[in-house]
Records
---
Amino acid sequence: MRRIGAERLRNGRFGRSAEGFPIAPEPAPPPGRPRVVGGSRAQYVPRPVTEKSQRFTAPSLDGVSLRAIHWGDPGRAPLVLLHGGGANAHWWDHLAPDLARHFRVVALEFRGHGASDHPESLKVGAFSDDLDALLEHIGVPDAILVGHSMGGHIALERAARARSCRGLVLIDVAWGTPPRARRVMRRVLARRPRTYATRAEAVRRFAFVPPLLRASDALRDAIAQHSVCESPEGRFGYRFDPRWFGLPSRPAPPLSDVRCPTLIVRGTESPVLMPDSARALAAGLPNARLVEIEGAGHHVHLDRPEAVLAALREFLVPLR
């Protein structure tokens, strides 16, 4: 296991991305010592980004249309970002512009989430179908896959099934999660969400499950703004269908089938991916390493975006 050494945000101690976002330094650990990502609360400032939103479908989707957001030069190595349950592609907005300096970045919205279709019929394995359709649509079956939580499980299943996968990043996936924690999360996510009379109230009431620990108020608000939609009745709710959380999950694939380089990212305060479970997951994968982000919860890339960017760049750039 690797941890990234604790640092604090000080003038001159952090570099900055092309978009002005702070990037943590990457000191090497002493032999036999893990690396820890430390640091103070990241300050996210919304800013213009170069992106393209696109809807697409495929025969395998049986009429369902999906939305994807694209950043960067289409001629670069492809990197696909997969959000967690109840989220949407905009959960990557603060990271994608920096990653697009090196990659063709595509963030998918699974059906029942965001601006993708919300079909009436539900099917076990539909999110895997969505990822397969995206990779076929953009013509890159060997794309590097980065998935948070549920999106990590979809990426893991694809990497085990398709040996062409160039690389895999699993951000705080539920692995060996205590049964009580799993039940609580699924019960909360499957609850029929309330609607509100105004958009402002819906934004104010938007809640992260589990709660964020360190994310800036600006980042919270930006995600909430992108997560609210207006119903035909003129009330305001959220852009996901909670019925999907009532479906059983597919069995996890054999870890030995995942042959590509893999990075596992865990928040040290996560209630979802416990330390022993993270180490067991890393040990079961043929070519994996583990990084723990100090002070982050389950939503690691929101709590500590600068540290996650540093870990991603160190792992991903050599895979181009």
---
Amino acid sequence: MNLKIGIIGLPNVGKSTLFNALTNAGALAANYPFATIEPNVGIVPVPDDRLDVLGKIYDTEKIVPATVEFVDIAGLVAGASKGEGLGNKFLAHIRECHAICHVVRAFKNDDIVRADSQPETDILSQAKDDIDIINLELTLADEETKAKIAEKSRKNPKFAEENPIPFLTEKPVIYMFNVDEQGLIDDSLKSALETLVKPSKAVFVNAKLEEEMADMNRAERKEFLESYHVQDDALGELIKAAYDSLGLQSFLTAGKKEVRAWTIKKGATAPEAAGAIHSDFEKGFIAAQVCSFADLETLGSEKAVKEAGKMRTEGKTYIMRDGDVVEFRFNVSK
């Protein structure tokens, strides 16, 4: 599946700056509401260090990571569901996404005006207020949608069944708190913000630091963030939270021509995983030759894995595991 995440938040929370950092797309990041007039879209590779390891083992010609599509949706305000602040138009873009990344302001900076124009007071209470505004707008938008469905269903009783519409409030939400540099190492603040949004996932980033790391490679980013006791950059943290929230995992295919990561649901069977590559693979599935990435990395070659008895042949009922390295056998004429 191609993962699609909608990035939402009130104006001036650092949303477009974070979008730029996530995608290097150069979206306008201005200190005034609705700088994002149209949704910016960026497709970026999912960080996966296993691909480089496999690339060396197989001396591959090409490495193809899984991808995620980010959609930067214009800043919402109170009344967005009724069309205030351009919000009504852009709520429709959220419906097309698998998950929502809600960027929340959790820093104080008098030079960047808050969406409600109120002075900076308490980070926690104002973060809660901001979250409540967005959640209310999503709820009101869903209520309006339900009313429209009910009206159309009176004319056509099968309308809802024939036209399934994803409700905004049913989508998984990952809260991305934009904190200042001190906030990155403030465990008390982070714990309080995590509690505020449970059971949803929370990640903590500093938009300006992410901006500074734009030209760094992945290794340099990790080294830079170590001084802030942060394990990964915004992209890595968000991807992990999204995979966890949506129940996703990756399997890998590897050979001389190509090493590639594929995104599937946890609990997917081997035929369903084969279908992620091509529907014919699922229809004509015969078997899967499987080994774990850990065994392949440790032993150093496919030949060594087979000699160690770590290569398995699995059938239609096999439940895929994260990091499985797979070669599918299939018959397209089935």
---
Amino acid sequence: MTKSIKTICMTLLMTICFAVTCLVLSACGGSDGKGQVFSTSADAFGFAGATAGAFLSKLNVASSSAVNIADSAQVATADQSQKVDILNKYIDIFDSVVGNNAITSTKEHLDDVNYNYKITTTITDLDGSKQTFEMKFKEVKQDNTLVTDDDRDEITSSLSGVMTYNGVEYEISGKKQVERDEVEIEFIAYINQNTRVLVEQETESGEQEFQYSIFNNGFMTDELSVEVETERNEIEVEMQYSKNGVEISYKFEREGNALRIMYRDSTGSGYIRATVSSDGNSISYTFDDGTVITKDI
């Protein structure tokens, strides 16, 4: 793996996770019940855009991930290998690096003929370096007038603009519908017409769900939905994955410096513990039956 590819992977490893971790800390407020992660619609829309950018960055990077089974572990079944293949593809979106990190998310008006809003998210890594995600877009109502902050009730609008992730600019276009406490956003982020990510974001009564359809070379390669919420001051992330009739549910929880992942599919359920190596180059997945599969990042 080249240094540039490792850099992109590690950037992905921290970007969404810092967003989820820090936004949760600001939203918990000490409650023991469930709560929403994103305190504003801009936070949620920024998260949707950042994840879309992360997926597109993956499509831009050609990488291999051969499976290695530890000598001391049991032999992995095909079913276990499949579960790890899926996990390893998206683990960097759910893992987090805990430390003195910070995230700031701002929404501002633009006096620009092409855009009337900009959302900027800045993540401070453990070493103090900063990663910035930016989305500029025009939001227009059905009567062809620009949306303003005074529009608070029922609105149907179109979205068009660009987002910048890891120094690469992607075109975005979509629509938004607001009805009281319900917000639905659907947009597409493009590398080109054949390689794109369709994002459907829905917020209702504090519950937030993000659905992704990922297209590569004209074919839909993956379909997944993500729910993010807090419970007992802890992040809960659940991913539903679907492809070619295979459906698997993963629920992610922090366990020290590792992730504890509960999975469920048509064959049953179980647990996997995912640990990143000290050099950051690989992840070990340990099943509850003792099987260990190690994959390159």
